[in-house]
Amino acid sequence: MGGPVTNLSTFNHDLHIAQLKSDLKSNVIPIGFVKRGIFYHRALLFKALADRIWVPVSLVRGEYSRAWNEVTVFGGGKASHYLVNLMDEPGALMKVGGYAAGVYKKL
To answer: Which residues sit opposite 81 in a β-bridge?
Structure first.
């Protein structure tokens, strides 16, 4: 699921998910089988991986099947909260409450 997704309208993940469900004869798909995913697929995988290596991160669910991750970074005696971009610029951090984070939540 790595790499940026620059155009959601041409990024067809539904067919991949449908094929997996058919092959497995189940609506339950192990996260490791998913090779193409959008917001909620990537956010869930990021949360699972972060938990595995003890990185504190939250999984936040929004409207219209949107999901994202938020991390807290401690430095200089204070905590800062960031949203992790997993779609168009994977790994980039956006300040929670900032304009970029607001746009990301509504893509």
So the answer is: 72
pTM for the full model?
0.75
pLDDT per residue rounded down to tens, the chain (107 residues): 566 666 555 556 667 778 888 999 998 888 788 777 778 888 988 999 999 999 999 999 988 878 999 999 998 899 999 999 998 899 999 999 999 999 989 87
Amino acid at 8: L
Angle at 67 between CA 30 and CA 4, to 5 degrees: 80
Distance CA 77, CA 56 (A): 18
Question: CA nearest 96: which of 66, 65, 60?
Answer: 60
SS (H, E, C) 51-89: HHCCCCEEEEECCCCCEEEEEEEEECCEEEEEEEECCCC
